[in-house]
Structures are given as C-alpha cells and as structure tokens.
C-alpha cells in the first residue's frame, strides 16, 4: 500500500493507494495556517499509514517553493510555513521511505505518466486556477531548479497590472481563473467566476467576449515565450479555467500558432486528471521510491 | 588525442586536443553553403583525424536546429543544410566515436564545466552576437528539446519590430550586437557596430545612451521571463556584445533585479571563453564519449 497526501492552500486530500494506484481509502480536511499546518500534515500522514495497515511508502505534494530533491517545503505564502524538512520529519515518524515535491509537479507527473502528456519527452502541464504555474519536462526530465522552476504565472506579459507577488504584469495577475472573474467585474460592475464568464461568452455577452479575448492573448504571450525556451511537444492546461474546454483551447491554439515561426508547435490539450492529479502524482513518486529499491 | 570542429555560419574552427584539452593543432577555414558545407565538414574532420595520428574521438558543433541526441543537423538557415546525420557520416568515415551538438550548447558546455558557470546546477549561457540563443542547464542537465530548446532570441519582448525568423518583436531583432548597430544607425543616420555604440555611451553620446538603455530593457525583459521559467543561479553573457563588460552587466543586473520578486536572483557574469568556446565544448563532448566506454 502507498499513502499519498496533496496539501492545498484550502484543503488536504489524502489517499491510501494500491500498488496499481487504485484508491483504497480517501480523506479530505481543511489546511490550517502556519505551524499548525505542519502538525496537521504529519498527523494526517500518520493516520493514513495506520489506516493502510501495510503502507510501504509515502508521497507528499505541497504548494509554494519546494525543493523536491531535498524534500523541503521552502516557503508557502498561502500556508505560511518556511523551510519545513517534510521528508525527514515523516520518515522519522513513520519509518517509511518518503517522496516530497511541489503540488504542481505532482499533478504534472500524473498527466505526464498516465494522462494527457503521456508519451511526450518535452511537455508543460499548467494548472490555471487561483494561481498559475507549470510542471516542465525537458528531455524526459521533470525540472525542479531547487523549487524555483516553472513559475510561468510570474512571467510578465507586458501589461500594467499589479500582482500579489509584488511584481507588475504577471500572467497570474491577469489570466488566472480568479483574475478573469476580477477583470470582468471591474469592466461591468457585475461579479462573476471564470466559469460564469466562459458561459457568458458562449451566450454572446460582448463584455465577456472582450475579457476572454484579452485572456487568450495574455496566455498566448506567455506560452509563446515558454515554447521558445523549452520547446514542449504538448502543453496540458488544467485547473478551473480548463473547464472551458474548446472555448479556451481553440482560440489559444490559434493565438499561439500566430506567434510562432520556426519553433516547434506544441499540441494543446486539457488535463486528464481533475483535482486528484496531485494525489496520483504523489502516489507515483512514492511507488518510484519502492521500485528503486 | 581528440578532434574538435566548431562550424560557424562564416568559418569553421578545428582543433586537435590533448586528453587534457590542450590545443595541439588548430585550423580555420571558411564555411561553404549548402551541400558543399557537408562535404567540407567531413573533409576537415578527416584531415584533423589524420593530423592527430592517434585520434580516439571526434566532437562536432554546428549551428541551427540540431538534435544532439541523434547527432543530426536538422536545419540551418545560414548554411542551408537539412537533416544531415553527421554523427553517422563521420563515424563511418573515421571509424571513431562521434559527438554532435549545437554550437551554442557546445559553448555553454565549456562555460558550465570549465568557465564562468562552473559549479552551478542551473544556468543560462547566452552568446549575443549576430544572433541570440541560450544553452540552458536545469538540475545539472543540458536541455536539448530535440534541438529546439533555448531559443531565447526568438522570444518576443513586446516591441513592433520584424525579425528574420518571420516573427515580430523577437529579442534577437532588437538586442543582438547586429541589432544594436542597426538601431543606432536608424536613429542617427550614422553607421556603427555594437562595440562602437558601447564606446559612444562611455563618451556621453546621448543617442548611443538611449539605444543602450533600450537594449538593456529588452534583455532584462527576456532574462526575467527566462528566470521565472528555468530559475538559473547564474546567467553567462558571451558573444560580441559581452565585450562591453560592466557597461552591459551593471545596468542589466539592476534592470533584471527590478523585474524579479520571489524568484531566485541569478548572478550575471561575462563568458570566460571567447570564440573558442564551441571548440572546447565539442572537445569535452568527445572526451565524455571516451570516458563512458
């Protein structure tokens, strides 16, 4: 049995998985803030290990800046922890081998090995939700960069909009699911989620169409820059915004194609796994540990 | 003995190197165009092998789109070849193990293993000459992307300027050494090389200072995007423009720092190897082949 836990800014999703990664048990609970979050992670993992009975390895996915190689959660603004050596802490507590990594890279691992990016040696998996980040595979290697790689959400798209990170013009500030709703509300005075904006586009709402077209342009700008640099064969879009499906993929593929010349043209597609991707990816990492032994 | 050949758009630089990579013999000759270039490469390598007497491996660096993993020169607009399987052709002709790769990645290999990027597991080595491209190392891995990785010169910096690639606003179109001279001439009606523009900046020429400041902004835009995505610890600038030294590095470091927030801040530095980097890198690849046996 394998224990997997995906810690999000809002909730933690845990699972006991069979060696074939079938879900034997699952739990979901809120993520506390600060030091309490560290204790909650350790407690939850211990509970899942006990529940599993014969757990052989643990996989943990956490947000923020994460050094997958050292198994350390370096920083998360949302949760408020810093330099937590989860790999060592969990190994000490459970006596099991532990894999720790970034939640986006965990989700990316699921898509790359079992989902929409399967078979590609060069890919980007980009969840677009409250935030935007990328899991990046080049030459078959999942890039970590000491936890700093793949921050496509904090790449400027040349627009004068402040970002929560302190920067200006970040992709996340204008093209996250949250930003799409915010920009629509600012334009119209009417609150809407990104999903509602997408629905309004389909109904012919001109304001929604304008916001959507701008969003496509921002995403196209960032994807073109990423394509020049890392040359993915496939780009997988996940997260809340990906629920728009072809309304997103169609115009985004066209926009991106219009920005590329000799570059390799990536195929755009929607993620296979929903919000279970992080848990599946953490489970895959844990299984890798066992197979390496 | 190792034979190394660096094929540029204008000239080919060949060398016979000792196992310690000391230069025992060297040659330089013009690069012909089209099919003749393929023959010239094969001839020159054969000559160097004969000259070496006891050559044990060959390293070849070529421009354009190059698949280092298959040893194939996929495309070079400058030279005019397409899908040349150099690794197999040279191995057949010489009976020796052959490493083939991109000239920028060869130069990058020299800087990463023996030069300015030594010791860093995440780095960008960016020659800025007639063109601009990057050798990109992430987690200690030199990224290839089937030959398409590292094309930072063909990333848009959001300006309305046509590029030779057919795109608009590419970094190379406004910030290569050639582009700096071209933009100064357009502004003033006076021809100047990038080196002359740099000298004029030092002398207080206002037009040169304006062109230089814009160039720094374009480079800062692209480096910030690359930093968000691949998180280098060090960025090495090479090529003609790097001869400006601190006049380039000082303001570029400041510009880049102003664009970053939580991102890892890369150290900027000038390349150690001049135009011999490609040959040294090709020699390192050839030596790697021998060590792997």
How are the secondary structure elements laid out?
2 copies of one chain form a homodimer.
Chain A: E1 2-7, E2 11-17, E3 23-30, H1 35-52, E4 57-62, E5 65-67, E6 72-76, E7 81-84, H2 86-94, E8 98-102, H3 103-114, E9 123-127, E10 135-138, E11 141-142, H4 171-175, H5 177-188, H6 194-202, H7 206-230, E12 234-238, H8 246-259, E13 267-270, H9 277-292
Parallel strand pairs in A: 1-4, 4-8, 9-12, 12-13
Antiparallel strand pairs in A: 1-2, 2-3, 5-6, 6-7, 9-10, 10-11
Helix pairs in contact in A: 1-2, 3-9, 5-6, 5-7, 6-7, 7-8
InterPro entries (chains A, B): ATPase_NBD, ROK
Pfam family, one (chains A, B): ROK
Protein name (chains A, B): ROK family protein
Describe the structure.
Chains A, B: This is ROK family protein. Chains A, B: InterPro entries: ATPase_NBD (IPR043129), ROK (IPR000600). The structure is a homodimer of 293-residue chains. The first copy, chain A, is an alpha/beta fold. Chain A has 2 domains: 2-107 and 275-292, 2-Layer Sandwich (Nucleotidyltransferase, domain 5); 118-270, ATPase, nucleotide binding domain (Nucleotidyltransferase, domain 5), CATH 3.30.420.40. Chain A is built from 9 helices and 13 strands. In chain A, the strands form 3 sheets. In chain A, strands 3-2-1-4-8 form a 5-stranded mixed sheet, with helices on both faces. In chain A, helix 8 (246-259) links the parallel strand 12 (234-238) and strand 13. In chain A, helix 1 crosses helix 2 and helix 7 crosses helix 8 (246-259). Chain A binds chain B through residues 65, 69, 75, 121-122, 134, 136, 138-139, 141, 143-146, 148-152, 154-156, 158, 163, 165-167, 221, 224-226, 228-231, 259-264, and chain B through 65, 69, 75, 121-122, 134, 136, 138-139, 141, 143-146, 148-152, 154-156, 158, 163, 165-167, 221, 224-226, 228-232, 259-264.
